[in-house]
Known about the structure:
Elements: E1 4-7, H1 13-23, H2 30-38, E2 43-50, E3 53-63, E4 66-74, H3 83-97, E5 102-108, H4 112-121, E6 124-129, E7 140-145, H5 162-167
Parallel strand pairs: 4-5
Antiparallel strand pairs: 1-2, 2-3, 3-4, 5-7, 6-7
Amino acid sequence: xxxxxxxxxxxxxxxxxxxxxxxxxxxxxxxxxxxxxxxxxxxxxxxxxxxxxxxxxxxxxxxxxxxxxxxxxxxxxxxxxxxxxxxxxxxxxxxxxxxxxxxxxxxxxxxxxxxxxxxxxxxxxxxxxxxxxxxxxxxxxxxxxxxxxxxxxxxxxxxxxxxxxxxxx
Length: 169
């Protein structure tokens, strides 16, 4: 499956909102995505697109030298096809170029699939935020990747190099 990763635009917001609602019980409001795109200098936003359809998205904040994964989602109809993995790798590659040295995130305790994907990138579970999610008071698991290394962000099954991906944006 060949999809394109490109920078998110304001025109993408309706499709991103739809994806967010399909993916999370506490989706972000539309104004939050608009803020990330127009007013948050720390924000970096990308989408994965397949045949004109937004099938994935990621928002990452660059906070000094840390990449904070704010949200990452793949359309339920397109999961388990490497979209989330490639979005995360793409974002981290760009943030390394901007000076990121480490990364962190919060993930629902029950989201075992996401936790496993993050572990494959080298993230370690380092803590817990009790009752973090308002909808069901579920704990968030804190995950850190202490040392971002570009070589950890390449996958054997990737058809393009990071430079070739850039041309698709």
